[in-house]
TrEMBL record:
<comment type="similarity">
    <text>Belongs to the peptidase S49 family.</text>
</comment>
<keyword id="KW-0812">Transmembrane</keyword>
<dbReference type="InterPro" id="IPR029045">
    <property type="entry name" value="ClpP/crotonase-like_dom_sf"/>
</dbReference>
<feature type="domain" description="Peptidase S49">
    <location>
        <begin position="123"/>
        <end position="260"/>
    </location>
</feature>
<dbReference type="InterPro" id="IPR047272">
    <property type="entry name" value="S49_SppA_C"/>
</dbReference>
<keyword id="KW-0378">Hydrolase</keyword>
<keyword id="KW-0645">Protease</keyword>
<keyword id="KW-1133">Transmembrane helix</keyword>
<keyword id="KW-0472">Membrane</keyword>
<dbReference type="GO" id="GO:0006508">
    <property type="term" value="P:proteolysis"/>
</dbReference>
<feature type="transmembrane region" description="Helical">
    <location>
        <begin position="12"/>
        <end position="32"/>
    </location>
</feature>
<feature type="domain" description="Peptidase S49">
    <location>
        <begin position="366"/>
        <end position="517"/>
    </location>
</feature>
<dbReference type="Pfam" id="PF01343">
    <property type="entry name" value="Peptidase_S49"/>
</dbReference>
<dbReference type="InterPro" id="IPR004635">
    <property type="entry name" value="Pept_S49_SppA"/>
</dbReference>
<dbReference type="InterPro" id="IPR002142">
    <property type="entry name" value="Peptidase_S49"/>
</dbReference>
<dbReference type="InterPro" id="IPR047217">
    <property type="entry name" value="S49_SppA_67K_type_N"/>
</dbReference>
<keyword id="KW-0720">Serine protease</keyword>
Length: 584
């Protein structure tokens, strides 16, 4: 019997050791495989810079998701700033003869596509060609590709050119049906983030702001497509309303495409442009590889630092998205770094925690006392995302940025009816009058509602106070354009919420000018995590679970689910934009 137990124990130990060895061997293989692709890239003569499906354009280093549970090595993440610099460099690079756009589904935000499109327009001034090819082309991809000198479409392809629309889901009847109570407290009639919980239809205020937003964005994007494709406004509207892009022959007839050809024929056209023979190899270099081909070594001179803030704003010390403790460290590092002469704060956030936003704003105010602080808006700079911009010397917005949303809300779900229907009840024993002002089974007490309302109102007044200081307007003026309303960048400029319309590169140039720099390097914060760090970060069980759920129900629905289920979110006053807009 002893011998048997010894054998069993030995086998268990051997299995455990084998698992440990296998795990660490697996980690080593991952690290080696992730670094093996970092070999220097040599760009050959007569090359074509290619923007293809293997490129994901991201706004911030924190948007990168790689590691143990993100094994897709096919797609390469490229920062928008790096992409713009690469296109600018290619303009004068004798080895690059032209650019080929080959994307059906572009993974990039609307302002990023705007910037890429502008960079390509500038590239064309060099006299080099820009061609585009598509199969089943999304509206976002066509918006970028339409900038090309020639647009080629697969004979069996299509272009999904349809305009913009949004659909708002409502959960009030669902909550009532299953006995879920939702207490909502908000300031701002346009603060529609809470509408799905308290209404069964869209409010007039929300319909008004959504209609204005969508029309602002579509007017800007559609006019650029129409100009590039040499169509007048009326003709272009007919093409979009009629969905002519869905039929390749109609797409050709109505000038959305120049020719219907196969991909192999498209490559032959480029070869002919380069004076290559039919059997010669076509040298294509992806945007990501082109960036890798030239040195990005850190120099020791003066620097303009770009601090990227992308995602929702939260309390805590995590890497992805905007966590207050982490960003306070970044800001203090920048404040103490003597080589950094100016800071550009790049915001791409719909907001989040009011408390975390306030912490970040305070540290930025301290940074501003020591060196210039310029803010650049990406796709979103709304609610808390706008709040943290209020330390800026100057604010740049993109024309299609969603910004403003100066408002505050709290969502408090409770399950009294649901519990009672299923035989669950509770009694409360407490030491003070409001020890249990909120319970998931009993809801919020009347006095609790009163105090939370005062908290929301106080937070709103504090929000508007900082906006009045930065924008040099009165409380009444800001309150009139606040109320939770979201504006496009164009309108935000008109009503004084931002200083100028411009790109991240414009903000960097102004920051250098304000710091008196004639020559400088651009450095990014936060630094990219190493593969090894990302692997261990991704071992977090809650993070894995969240990513699985998010992938199944979508990011927007996941954020609504969090508001109901997350204790952390329930306990915070929120400064958050109600929705996101994507040109699909």
């Amino acid at each position: 019997m002893k011998s048997f137990l010894k054998n069993v124990l030995a086998n268990i130990v051997a299995i455990v050791l084998l698992c440990v060895v296998f795990f660490f061997f697996f980690i080593i293989i991952l690290v080696v495989s992730s670094t093996s692709g970092d070999k220097s890239v040599v760009v050959k003569n007569n090359s074509v810079l290619t923007i293809n499906l293997k490129t994901n354009i991201i706004d911030s280093p924190t948007e990168e998701r790689t590691g143990l549970f993100n094994m897709d090595k096919k797609n390469k993440n490229v920062l928008i700033y790096e992409a713009l610099e690469a296109i600018d460099k290619a303009k004068t690079d004798d080895k690059i003869r032209g650019i080929s756009i080959e994307v059906d589904n572009l993974n990039a935000g609307i302002t990023q596509i705007d910037d890429l499109r502008s960079a390509l327009e500038d590239f064309k001034k060099s006299g080099k060609f820009v061609y585009a090819y598509g199969n089943t082309v999304s509206q976002a991809s066509y918006y970028l590709g339409s900038v090309a000198d020639k647009y080629y479409l697969n004979p069996a392809g299509m272009i999904e050119l349809k305009g913009l629309a949004t659909e708002v889901a409502f959960f009030k009847d669902f909550a009532d049906k299953y006995g879920i109570g939702i207490q909502v407290i908000r300031h701002g009639k346009f603060k529609s983030a809470v509408e799905p919980f308290i209404r069964n239809d869209i409010s007039p205020e929300n319909r008004e702001q959504l209609s204005t937003l969508l029309n602002d964005i579509w007017r800007n994007t559609s006019s650029k497509i129409a100009v590039s494709r040499k169509m007048d406004t009326a003709q272009f509207r007919t093409v979009v309303d009629s969905l002519y892009g869905m039929i390749p022959e109609l797409g050709l007839k109505y000038k959305l495409a120049d020719q219907l050809i196969q991909k192999g024929e498209y490559d032959q056209i480029i070869k002919s442009k380069l004076h290559l023979k039919e059997d010669d190899k076509l040298n294509k270099v992806s945007l990501a590889k082109y960036i890798d081909s030239y040195s990005d070594d850190e120099k020791s001179g003066d620097k303009v630092a770009v601090l990227y803030a992308s995602g929702s704003i939260n309390s805590g010390d995590e890497y992805n998205e905007i966590y207050s403790e982490k960003y306070i460290k970044y800001i203090k590092d920048l404040q103490e770094n003597d080589k950094v002469k100016a800071v550009v704060f790049r915001i791409n956030s719909p907001g989040g925690s009011a408390n975390a936003s306030d912490e970040i704003l305070f540290e930025l105010q301290q940074l501003k006392k020591k060196k210039p602080l310029i803010v650049s808006f990406g796709d979103y700079a709304a609610s808390g995302g706008y709040y943290i911009a209020m330390a800026a010397d100057k604010i740049y917005s993109e024309p299609n940025t969603l910004t403003g949303s100066i408002g505050v809300f709290g969502v408090i779900p409770y399950f009294k009816e649901l519990a009672n229907k299923n035989g669950v009840r509770s009694d409360i024993v407490a030491t003070n009058a409001n020890s249990q002002y909120f319970s998931t089974l009993h809801g919020v007490s009347p006095y609790g509602v009163n105090m939370i309302t005062r908290s929301v109102e106080g937070t709103y007044k504090r929000f508007v106070h900082f906006v009045t200081q930065n924008r040099k307007q009165t409380f009444e003026q800001i309150d009139q354009i606040g109320g939770g309303r979201v504006w496009s960048g164009v309108r935000a400029k008109q009503i004084g919420l931002v200083d100028d319309l411009g790109t991240l590169k414009d903000a960097i140039r102004f920051a250098a000018q304000k710091a008196g720099l004639k020559s400088y390097d651009v450095t990014s914060y936060p630094k990219k995590m190493s593969t090894f760090e990302q692997i261990f970060q991704n071992l977090n069980g809650e993070d894995i679970e969240a990513r699985v759920v998010k992938s199944k129900i979508g990011k927007a629905n996941y954020e609504i689910l969090q508001q109901i289920t997350s204790e952390k979110l329930q306990s915070e006053v929120k400064m958050q934009m109600p929705y996101q807009i994507k040109i699909n």
